[in-house]
């Protein structure tokens, strides 16, 4: 089954998939299926598109005067690191780790990350069950969901 799901997803133009449709796709996959499909080029494409969308789904009116660097470490077949910089009412995302000090670092596996950003997981529950690890400003991490339009499946 995972091979057919992987083939179907490999053919998707993720840039053309709405956030709501992406949330429905993720909701329909088990943690095991996500783990099986998040490999190689498909993983890079999915993560790349999710992080590109963060800039578009950013809500500057909610962020106000927030100035913070948020580092995301997504573990899986390899560690993928992205940084989200929020400053002066804008959000910029870059792949890779800079030498800048992150105000908070969030670390989680592929499946948990996709469930979180698609609105299919509760970040508090993920933290309590240790599927989401935090280093740094826990208060900032707790408020991150209000700074972005998170789809609902």
Automatic annotation (TrEMBL):
Domain SCP2: from-to ranges: 60-148
Pfam families (alphabetical): SCP2
Listed InterPro entries: SCP2_sterol-bd_dom (IPR003033), SCP2_sterol-bd_dom_sf (IPR036527)
Protein name: SCP2 sterol-binding domain-containing protein
